[in-house]
Amino acid sequence: MAYIELKNINKIYPNGFHAVHNFNLEIEKGEFVVFVGPSGCGKSTTLRMIAGLEDISNGDFILNGKRANDLGPREREVAMVFQSYALYPQMTVFDNIAFGLTLQGVDEDVIEERVKNTARILGLTDYLDRLPRALSGGQRQRVAIGRAIIRKVGIFLMDEPLSNLDAKQRVTMRYEIAQIHRETGATTIYVTHDQTEAMTLADRIVVMKDGYVQQIGTPRELYFQPENVFVAGFIGEPPMNFLRGTVQGGAIRFGDVKLDLSRRLPAIGDWEGKQIVFGFRPEAIRLGEQEESFVIPCQVELTEMLGDNTNVYITAGEDRAILKVDSHDTPETDAALTFSIPYESVYLFDGETEKVIR
To answer: Using an 8 Å Cβ cutoff, are 240 and 277 in contact?
Structure first.
């Protein structure tokens, strides 16, 4: 039996807006699950329904085998870390972390021991006497996380906790959150719009769009086995490239580019006259003509040298794409270029439904 179950969860606001549609998910105890998707996709709303901060319009929220729709936030034994740090500016780091225990009337000696242990886990031992204004953004976020984990609840909920940090701090905090999860073993549900955070932190990822779940799986499953164009384009950096064309005589055409799909799709005859989306990841390509590959001529529009690799922006037919190449192989802007994609590295999607073609 799963620790948390969400069965056909819906959120419909009084104005009729349907924010979350038939959300289904089972979460095991100790699992780290990330909800990811663009702004407005319903991920934070779903998290707030789990927390008890939003009513569930219909569906069942099962916690440890019991229906918990009507339980309040405190009864659900969840701790939430919000996007804003929400620290008390007049309180020291020690008092901010201890605040929840103080409200519960926990003995002072117990509070001191647990605060110090939490501070050790978070690397805050030297900052316990400081006020929040004397801390960096990353340190403030650690205090907010400390206030959550000190309560020793069963479920941690995190809503975009790193969005206020700069790029370097986000990398550091991702590592620290992963370490905290390993140390505490708590069930964690984490919301973000950043697919890098999702891929690096999650045991499983729930990809959402417009209130609907698009796919649930491990980071590896989502990267290598996307169910549709949206998931394929959302997971991965740079995102997957998509060339759209119509099948004619067993080949797909985009502008002057023509590729024989029979090696990749044996039933290509069934797709005659239909539109197919031809997808490939920027890092899957090889420069020049290679055997057992699709060979595509293109024009270089722009290059971005990033150190060990270069992003090459190209046009192929009427479509644009990004290629990732070794920085030593950076082509000249406006140059003609030919690249190859191994047959097994290509993804094909139905042009009408945008679902993957198996």
So the answer is: no
